[in-house]
Amino acid sequence: MERKKYYVxxxxxxISRIEYGNNADFVIYATxxxxxxxxxxxxxxxxxxxxxxxxxxxxIRPYHHDQANDDYxxxxxxxxxxxxxxxxxxxxxxxxxxxxxxxxxx
Length: 106
Known about the structure:
Largest sheet: 3 strands, antiparallel
Organism: Virgibacillus siamensis
Number of strands: 3
Distance between the termini: 25 Å
Structural class: alpha+beta
Radius of gyration: 15 Å
Oligomer: single chain
Shape: globular
Protein name: Hydrolase
Order of helices and strands: EEEHHH
């Protein structure tokens, strides 16, 4: 399959073929299936974040013993790995400078 250019904004969890506004934090080249895989990772992050919101309203449950937080952390790491793997050189450099991935992945 042919890889196409996509723009990814992690803050808004947006993946777009069209650059506009501030959606071009990361540029990737992906097949439609790879873009859908990344979309699924971002959706799982959103679900974990939503579950964490509810946990935050239970004062007796410490945040560091919360599966939703762990799921979100795992999801964001997986998403950044995929963005790094599919990204152009500027995207890869940006992720390296952010320090969000371990050395052995890059």
